[in-house]
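Review this:
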Amino acid sequence: MKNLSLILKLLLILFLILLIGSCGNSTEPAKKAQMAIINHNSASMALLSDATIEQAKSRLHIAYGHTSHGSQLTTGMEGLANWKGSMYAFNNGGTDGALDLRDSPFAGAYDLGNPDRTSWATATRNYLNANSEINVIIWSWCGQVSSATENDIDTYLSLMNGLEEDYPNVTFVYMTGHLDGSGADGNLNQRNEQIRLYCQNNKKILYDFADIESYDPDGSNNYMLLYANDACDYDSDDDSSLDANWAVNWQNAHTEGVDWYNCSSAHSQPLNANRKAYAAWNLWVTLAE
């Protein structure tokens, strides 16, 4: 009986050792942000609240690489803060209650296609290795999606996926390229569709730059189908000329300082940057959930 009791005690100790060991060596991956597609449906302040904005500011440390077209997000965000107040402020480091958004902090690359189509990935690794607090990486294109081949976009997607695997605690935001007036059948839209399909099939986070600038706030027309370009010019009467501008038309029909705000918007109109800023804040709020 004593031997049986001793054996049971030894078995219990062995079980506890195995249990503790299995917990300490868990291979469960770090929690990842769920798939999110940020598009023209996200370009609204109505979706935001003070509580969710404060949560994003408390949880996120963002590094954003871009050149002129990508600056529409940040100049739009600056204009929004000027219009609506410090609730929407951001700066490098997140001081004074602002969102920690480091604007173009990378060395060795400017955007997803400059100086080439791969340097941004090395620049990202170098920055993350030196700044372990960063938990969101976002890069934008300039005009390079317009001339990209299918293989070029595959390279982009592969590099992004490799970064996600090597930095599992960082959320990487994919992006489409800006409109160029080539319409639904143009190479730009085909390559953007390639990015969208990959993100949908693989549950990625996508900031759909092109889709955001394809719609005015009323959302009744897809201006990409009417050959809209990055300046918001489009063909209103199907005569193969860009004879109207959806952003200017909407601004003229609405009140500045009430329905929209003036701000810098590289290559485009203030309303475009307004919508990029609203969508950006909805992205930050989504990532902080």
